[in-house]
Design goal:
The chain has about 290 residues and is an alpha+beta fold. It is built from ten helices and ten strands. Helix content is about 45%, strand content about 20%. The protein is globular and about 60 Å long.
């Protein structure tokens, strides 16, 4: 693994901000520790989609987010092991486990919970970074995808993971956006969905079914009026202003609110119309085309 001098050298050689390199290193280190204690075998990674240290800090700020799967074969007598029941203190116990594993590996790592349910304080070799570390219980009927992440901070260079399906992640964002509408506080939902549809091919049918499940679970339906109201937001001064605030916060100059809304309209409208008609959607989302391809 790397120490402060190694990270400084890497940042200088690659012309990257040190804080950015350090943040990505810590996220990769958490995954290495989770792989070592085998808990990663029961966890589906939602974010990040990469450990590339050149990626902007706004991606880094999303932190580590997982879905955790229980193993019915594990009993209480087995103790705190991968696949055990996810109780209320699961996250805290897992952080303690990571701390113990780090000590066994003689890593200069200290993990502190700072009260907020999402964030932890990470101290490493005299350096500090706050990190989002979120875990939710996975739903039944969803199957992860095997993947690998390249990590600059270890000899193996690659970390095997289970990835939360992109279609499910997209459905999560669509569900929040269409439920909250203009009352949505965090414009990050738009940014995350925009980046996902701009880079990731997806099955339209899987997206449609995933959105449909979420609507059903919350007792809602895909109403035309809901979509028409959301469609009218393309010229909303209120949301345009909120989007500009988000861009400034993340030191970004683009895309514009109009570009984001236009792209997401092409992604959401066919799915919503299919659900409204209670039909089956056929078509694959092609990010390079910015539309579905039948």
């Amino acid at each position: 693994m790397m120490n402060r001098a190694d990270l400084t050298k890497y940042a200088e050689e690659n012309h990257l901000p040190f804080a950015q390199v350090f943040g990505w290193y810590v996220m990769g280190l958490f995954l290495v520790l989770l792989r070592k204690n085998h808990f990663l075998e029961q966890m589906w990674l939602v974010t990040p989609s990469t450990l590339d240290p050149s990626k902007d800090c706004h991606v880094l700020e999303e932190g580590l987010r997982f879905y955790y799967t229980e193993d019915e074969r594990i009993t209480k007598s087995d103790g705190f092991v991968p696949g055990c029941e996810m109780k209320s203190d699961f996250r805290e116990r897992l952080l303690m486990k990571l701390q113990m594993d780090a000590r066994e590996m003689k890593l200069p790592l200290e993990i502190k919970s700072i009260g907020a349910k999402e964030r932890v304080e990470v101290h490493y070799d005299g350096m500090y970074v706050p990190l989002k570390f979120q875990i939710q219980k996975a739903q039944r009927g969803i199957f992860p995808i095997e993947d690998e992440l390249e990590f600059f901070g270890c000899k193996e260079r690659k970390i095997s993971i289970l990835r939360y399906p992109s279609e499910e992640a997209a459905a999560d964002h669509v569900d929040v956006i269409m439920e909250k509408l203009e009352l949505l506080n965090e414009m990050e939902e738009y940014l995350s969905l925009y980046e996902l549809v701009s880079t990731t091919p997806m099955s339209g049918r899987d997206v449609s079914e995933a959105v449909g499940r979420r609507l059903c679970q919350s007792g809602r339906s895909a109403k035309r009026k809901t979509y028409e109201l959301w469609a009218s937001y393309s010229n909303s001064p209120f949301l345009r202003k909120k989007w500009k605030v988000l861009l400034r916060r993340h030191h970004m100059k683009s895309p514009t609110w109009e570009e984001v809304h236009s792209q997401l309209s092409l992604f959401i409208k066919p799915v919503w119309e299919t659900l409204e008609k209670e039909d089956i959607f056929f078509g694959d989302w092609m990010p390079q085309l910015g539309r579905y391809l039948d």
